[in-house]
Amino acid sequence: MVTVSIFSGVIFWVCAVGAVVTGVAVFRVDSMARATFALLASFVFAATPLLLLGLSYLGVLVVLMMIMEMVVMAVFMIMLMMNPAGLMPMTMVHNQRGSLLIAGGTFAVLGTGVFLVDWPQRRGEPAPDVTFALGEALMGSHMLVMLVIGLGLFATIVSSVVLAHPRGRYDRFGDDLKGRPADDPIRGSIG
Amino acid sequence: MSPVQQGPLWTVLLVPVLLAVLALGGAAFARVLDARADGRRITGSVLAAPLAESGRLLVQQRRSVVASDRLLARTGVVLVPVAAVLAALVVPLGGVTASDLSVGIVWFNAMEVVMWAALWMAGWGTNSVWGLVGGYRFVVQGLSYELPHMFALITVATGAGSLSVAGAVAAQDGLWFVVWMPVAFVAFLVSALALSFAGPFDTATGRDVAGGVLAEYSGVDRLLLLGGRWLLLAAAAAMSVPLFLGGGAGPLLPGWLWTVVKTVAVLGLLVWIRSRVATVRMDRFAEFGWMVLIPLTLLQALLVALVVLARGAPSMGGM
Amino acid sequence: MSLQAFLLLAVALLAVGLYGALSQQSIVMIMMGLELMVNAVIVAGAAFWFYVSPAEPDGQVVVLVAVTLMAVEMAMGFAVAIAIFRSGEIDMTDMAAELKD
User: Fold this and answer.
1) How distant is the Cα of A108 from the closest Cα of chain C, in angstroms?
2) A–B interface: beta-carbon pairs under 8 A
3) Is B153 exposed, middle or buried (0-12, 13-18, 19+ CB in 10 A)?
4) Contact A145 C61 (CB under 8 A)
C-alpha cells in the first residue's frame, strides 16, 4: 500500500529532529537574528516531510512563504527588541516553570494520545496530480474556503495598514487633499 | 507527447558547470562593454578578467570583523550560489531537463526568494553598518520586485495550464508566450536584474555605502557573493527561455543549441542593460514596482486568463 | 514513516510553540511561538490527508488555510505591535496592562 523506503524514513526522522531542535533553539539563542533564522530552519525542516508525502506544491509554497515572512520578521525583531544581536545576554521570560509544565504536559497527553487512539484506516489513493486536485477543490467544492481566505487577506491588508501607518491622507496631501506631490518623510510616495 | 523529458541523474551535475560557463561568459561580456565605454582596447586580458579575478579572490586572505555573526554570514554567503544552481535545476536544455518537477515554476520562485534571506544574513553577519544597510536595501528591493515577478510566473502558468516548466514549453508549440505576454516578459527581465542585484538595481552593494553587503567580505566569501550574483543572473536568463521563448523550439538547429542561443541572447541583453543604465534609487523603484509593474502584470494575468477561458478546455500540459 | 510519526512531530512542534507563546515576554517572540504551533497544524493536516483520506483534497485545504492563517497572524501581529509601541513605547506584554488597571 504505502511504500515506505528506508531512504525516505531516514530523511523524515532527520527533518523531524531538525525541526524540533531548531524550534527549541528559537527560544534559547540570544541573538534575535539567529532566533528568526532558526525558526525559518524549523519551517524548512517541517516542510520537507510534506514533499515526502507527495505534496510538492504545498511543501514548496510553505518554504517560499516562510522565507519572505521570516526576513520581514527579522526586520521587526531588530526594530522592536532590546539587544537584537545578543551581545549582552538577557532573559525576557515570565512564568518559566509554569510554561514548561504546561508545554510538557501537553506533549505528554497528546503524544500518548497519538499512540493510543485507533486511527481510521486509509481509504483511497491520492489523485494522479494532487496539486490539480487541490485547485479543483478550491474552485469547486471548497469555494467557500477560497472566498473566506480571499476576504480575510483583504481585510488583513486594510486593517494592518490602518493600524501601523501613522500618517493619513490629510497628513500627506494637506487639509484640502490637493497638495501634490505628497508631503512625505520618505520620497517615492511610499512613506 | 511532452517535448521535455527527464534526463538521467548525472545531468544534475552538468547544471552547475553549464551555469558557471554561462555566468563567466556574461561577466566577460560586461568587462568588454565597460572597456568599450572607457575607450580601452579589447584584449585577451579584458576577456579573461573575471577568471583572473576569481583566482585572485581564491588565494586572498579572509578578513573578519570583531563580534561578527559568523554562522549567519557564512550561511548567507554560501546560499547565494547554491540557490542559483538549485533554481537552474528545473531549466530544460533542449529536450532534456535535470529535474522535471511537477511544480517547477514554483520551485524556481522559491529558490530565488532564498536570496532575500541570504543577502540579509550576509549583510547582518559581518557586524558592519554598511553591510546591514545593504541587507535592508535588498529587502526593500525584494518587496518591490517580488510581486511583479510572481505575477509574471503566474501568467505563464495560467497560459500553460500547468506549473511544470515542461508544461510551459509544451504550451508554446504554436505561439511563444513572449508574443501574447509581453508585459510579463518585461517584468520578468526587470526582476531578473533586481534579484541578482545587478546593474540599475545594485543599491544593496552600492558605492555610496562602501559596497554594502560586500563591504567586509574578501577572499572566498567575496568570490561566492560576486560569482553567485552572476550565476543568478545566468539562471534567470536561462529560465526566461522555457517560460517565454518557446524553450528549444526553432528551425534547422537541434533543440539544445536553440536553447543556448536564446539564453545567450537574453543574458547579453541583460548584461547590456546592466552596463548601460544608471543605478535606480530604491524608493523610486519601490514606487515604480507598486504603482506601475504590479497593476500592469495583474492586467496581463487577467488578459491571459480571459484568453485561456475563451479558448475553451485548458491544455493540461503538466497533468 | 507512519501517521503516528508525523503526529508525534506535530505534537512536539505544538509543545515547543506553546512553551514559547506562554513564557516569552516580548510580543515578537510570542508570535514566533504561535507560528510554530500553526506549523504543527500544517504537518498534522498533511499527515491526515496522506494516511487517512488521500482521495479527498480536504487535508490539503486545511494546510492551505493554515498557511494563510500564518500570514494573517504575522501581518496583524506586527501591525498591533507597531501601534502599541507607538502609543507608549511598549514592546512587552507585561507592560500592556491598561485593561487590568
Assistant:
1) 9
2) 78
3) buried
4) yes
Q: Which of A107, A151, A154 should be substituted to probe chain C, the one whose Cβ sees the most C Cβ atoms within 10 Å?
A: A107
Dihedral Cα B153, B154, B157, B161, nearest 10 deg = -170
User: CB distance C60–A163 less than 8 Å?
Assistant: no
Rounded to an integer, the average pLDDT of B141-161 is: 91
Tally of domains within chain A: 2
For A159, the domain range is 129-191
Number of domains in chain B: 1
| Nearest residue of chain C to residue A148 (CA atoms) | C65
pLDDT band, residue B1 (cuts 50/70/90): very low
Chain A residues within 8 A of C53 when measuring between CB atoms: 122-124
Q: Which of B42, B177, B133 is nearest to A75 (CA)?
A: B133
Residue pair B188/B230 in contact (Cβ under 8 Å)? The answer is no
- pTM attached to this predicted model: 0.89
Which of A34, A35, A27 has its CA nearest to residue A92?
A27
Query: For A13-43, how does the pLDDT look when each residue is reduced to its tens digit (9 = 90+)?
Result: 999 999 999 999 988 888 888 888 999 999 9
Residue spans of alpha helices (H) in B7-96: 11-38, 44-47, 49-59, 70-88
Q: Do C19 and A99 touch (CB under 8 A)?
A: yes
| DSSP-assigned beta bridge partners for residue C24 | A93
C8 vs A99, A114, A145: nearest CB: A114
Is A119 inside any structural domain? Answer: no
**Which amino acid is it at C15?**
A
pLDDT tier at B319, thresholds 50, 70, 90: very low
The position carrying cell 522559491 is B110
CB distance from C84 to chain A under 8 Å?
Answer: no
Structural domains of chain C sorted by starting position, each given as residue range(s) with its CATH number in brackets:
3-93 (1.10.287.3510)
Shortest Cα–Cα distance, A149 to chain B (Å): 19
Task: Give the whole-angstrom CA distance, residue C24 versus residue C3.
Answer: 32
- Do the domain assignments include residue B319? no
Would the pLDDT of B44 be above 90?
no
Cβ–Cβ gap A160/C79 under 8 Å: yes
Q: Can you read off the three cell numbers belonging to residue A138?
A: 478550491
CB contact under 8 A, B103 and A74: no
Query: Chains B, A in contact: 3+ Cβ pairs under 8 A?
Result: yes
